[in-house]
Amino acid sequence: MASQAERYKSGVMPYAQMGYWDAHYTPKDTDVIAVFRISPQDGVDPIEAAAAVAGESSTATWTVVWTDRLTACENYRAKAYRVDPVPGAPGQYFSYIAYDLDLFEEGSIANLTASIIGNVFGFKPLKALRLEDMRIPVAYLKTFQGPATGIVVERERLDKFGRPLLGATTKPKLGLSSKNYGRVVYEALKGGLDFVKDDENINSQPFMHWRDRFLYCMEAVNKAAAATGEVKGHYLNVTAATMEDMYERADFAKQLGSCVVMIDLVIGYTAIQSMAKWARRNDMILHLHRAGHGTYTRQKTHGISFRVIAKWMRMAGVDHIHAGTIVGKLEGDPNIIKGIYSICRDSFTKQNFEQGVFFDQDWAGLRKLLPVASGGIHAGQMHQLITYLGEDVVLQFGGGTIGHPHGIQAGATANRVALEVMIKARNEGRDIWNEGPQILAEAARWCTPLRAALDTWKDVTFNYQSTDTSDFVSTPTAA
Amino acid sequence: MRITQGAFSFLPELTDAEIRAQIEYALGEGWAIGVEYTDDPHPRNYLWEMWGNPMFDLRDAAGVMAEVIACRRAHPRIYIRVNAFDSTRGFETTRLSFIVNRPADEPGFLLKRHEVGGRQIQYTIESYATKVPEGRRYE
């Protein structure tokens, strides 16, 4: 590096020379590390592009400023330290950038993201930019609350162990009156589901205001609990225009004795963290619907990988997160989804490039986030769902419950029987991946609702190519 | 009615061979088995009586099965469940729980509604069986 006087001469200088590239840098245990997929404009050197990302996501501006010299600026500069070509994707590079812990406010997703996904995403010298993964140091993780309830405590509160939980989203998502809506909730819970769910866009519309919905839903929840002897729940969506409105709705849900409330990702990181703190204070499970994420997580070249959103949400403190089904109607490559599930559920997530996990991540005792699989799944796929997703998951069959030819209760029963029979068979050591259809057929002999479900949906699959796939396997894995 | 607590209540009652297979699975996972019984099946009664401590040192399914059978002989008319406990860091909780004995007749629960202001109702669930004292229910 030139002398300090040379370095701070007014004018424009490549970011790499300004100190945002250091090939010999070894990240400290306390550094936040981000890996970006960068697609530099034609003619832009990848190392300079990586340095520019480091600069623009930390201290830099486009030109040299003398005021840097009033600070310990070396400390605050993010450092790009490694650039690898993306396998099989010419013009794309994985660039690793380390950030000193002092760059971030404790316990604030908003502050973390204002740097990491701030201005830098509009930076002209890049055609596209995607945040692929982050390593959050234990020192920083310990400043976050984490899931208000967590998988272990949720199961203990519900007294349900050893099998996935079962849910469904009320359909049609819009238009039902509160009384009709409560009917759907009751039938599904009585038939065998553990949870029913408001959809993301059910808030307080002309056809159904929120108080009315909460009252009818809690009648359904309690009546179903009395009918089955089980703890039941309905995710009451408290998403609203302001924090004051959300607190009012959440407090009402609590007064009515609900064990769970729900929010949408679109309320924003700060509102999510506020609701997570509310949920911890009020012994409430907090369900998160990931409405909106597909706008920035799905395409591989630009945006944020959902695995990063899952990490941020575990830090922010929600208890449930929709994380993909693999076999359903929504985007989901098996490898990528497995990586996301690991991030939600592990105490220590191991680096696994095939699954898109770039770093070891010690979760430092943060509680575990329960993934939710929802969207175009049905009882006939039970063996695949359990094989792929394991048992700490909520399986949500909306259409697959409510669309059952014999009614909602029958639909719920079909799903519950399929689930229990498959878990039992798995525990007995049977090869459910291969014998699954036979195991279901055997149960359908004594369970009419299951037989009807299998007959109705036997041929339904969604075999489309995923867009968000692994970069480190030669052949994409098929669902 | 039929109480559907536990992992397998929607299936036909498990045979002893099927119970044993689940115990073998749980032991294979390194979990400790506990047997519990109750005549108060309220959904929020998590404190069923323990048929002894969880059997941390008993790794033999036949031995565990003998305890299940002994508990059933002592309490033939009430609820008995098998729990499997996992002491692994990050879990440290029950990993499997299923009912292995239940009353022939399950009277179920009364849903009591206490109407308060603003259309609100406070709900209480009360087991019909618990109207008589503990130890004399389901007779």
Written description of the protein model:
The complex is a heterodimer of chains A (479) and B (139). Chain A has helices spanning 4-7, 15-20, 46-56, 73-76, 109-116, 138-141, 150-158, 178-191, 210-228, 243-255, 269-281, 294-297, 306-316, 334-345, 382-389, 399-402, 408-427, 432-446, 448-457; strands spanning 32-40, 79-85, 93-99, 126-135, 165-169, 195-197, 233-237, 260-264, 285-289, 303-304, 320-322, 348-349, 361-362, 370-374, 394-396. Chain A is α/β, with parallel strands linked by helices and 479 residues long. In chain A, the strands form 3 sheets. Chain A has an 8-stranded parallel barrel, surrounded by 6 helices. Mean pLDDT of chain A is 94; it is low at 475-479. With 139 residues, chain B is of the alpha+beta class. In chain B, 19% of the residues lie in helices and 29% in strands. In chain B, the strands form 2 sheets. Chain B has a 4-stranded antiparallel sheet. In chain B, a hairpin with a 5-residue loop joins strand 5 (109-115) and strand 6 (121-127). The longest helix of chain B is centred in the middle third of the chain and has 14 residues, at 61-74. Classes of the chains: A alpha/beta (479), B alpha+beta (139). The A-B interface holds A 152, 155-156, 159, 161-163, 192, 215, 218-219, 222-223, 225-231, 255-257, 346-347, 368, 413, 416-417, 420-421, 423-424, 427-429, 443, 446 and B 1, 3-5, 7-12, 18, 21-22, 25-26, 41-44, 46, 83-84, 89-98, 108-111, 119-123, 125.
